[in-house]
Design a protein that fits this description.
This protein is about 0% helix and about 35% strand. The chain is mainly β. The protein has one domain (about 5-160): 3 Solenoid (UDP N-Acetylglucosamine Acyltransferase, domain 1). The strands form 4 sheets. It has a 12-stranded mixed sheet with strand order 1-4-7-10-13-16-19-21-22-23-24-25. Strands 3-6-9-12-15-18 form a 6-stranded parallel sheet, with no helix packed on it. Strands 2-5-8-11 form a 4-stranded parallel sheet, with no helix packed on it. The radius of gyration is 18 Å and the shape is globular. The model has no long low-confidence stretch (mean pLDDT about 95).
């Protein structure tokens, strides 16, 4: 394979598919049957298990573990030392355990040292605070943090907080406090905010 860069200390399986202009840094391991898109950055000491799917323009910071059953869409940011899980009932002696899938949708950001319980979906452009433990799905544009992580607000694509500017029928209209971009949420999603 060519068209990507791997540091000499990286361990990249020749059965992995790596997109053009992707960079894989020091001591990272990319397992077989993994698919990584174009223009990604894989930081130092990252572990990507076999059969993982990662989109384009994804940035994975140092020390992240991405286990089998996780799918990461385009333009996702994974902060330093965050991790995913893939087994709800881990036992070393369990030989018939099942992979529980996790999906991180386009543009989402997950902060440093966060842990994502398997079986959840992190919605488009959602933001997970550092150190959070995510035990349930987070909606698109959701801002969630804590242990367990709770939905505390909504953010724009740019990552800044958004505020409600109106509503109509089942739609809540939001505006970014920084760039003034507008978008809307389903009213049911907005009403799940925890104070």
């Amino acid at each position: 394979m060519s068209g990507y860069y791997a540091h000499e200390t990286a361990d990249v399986s020749n059965k992995a598919t790596i997109g053009k202009n992707t960079k894989i840094w020091h001591q990272s391991q990319i397992r077989e049957d993994t698919k990584i898109g174009e223009n990604c950055t894989i930081g130092k000491c990252v572990y990507i298990d076999y059969d993982v799917k990662i989109g384009n323009k994804v940035k994975i910071q140092n020390g992240v573990s991405v286990y089998r059953g996780v799918e990461i869409e385009d333009e996702v940011f994974l902060g330093p030392h965050m991790t995913f899980t893939n087994d709800l009932y881990p036992r070393t002696f369990n030989t018939d355990w099942k992979i529980i899938k996790t999906l991180v949708k386009k543009g989402a950001s997950i902060g440093a040292n966060a842990t994502i319980l398997c079986g959840v979906t992190i919605g488009e452009y959602a933001m997970i605070g550092l150190g959070s433990v995510v035990t349930k799905s987070i909606p698109a544009y959701g801002l969630a943090f804590g242990n367990p992580a709770k939905l505390k607000g909504f953010v724009c694509k740019c990552g800044r907080k958004a505020k409600m500017i109106g509503q109509e029928n089942n739609k809540i209209f939001m505006e970014c406090t920084e760039c003034k971009n507008t978008f809307y949420l389903d009213k049911k999603v907005y009403l799940t905010l925890e104070g």
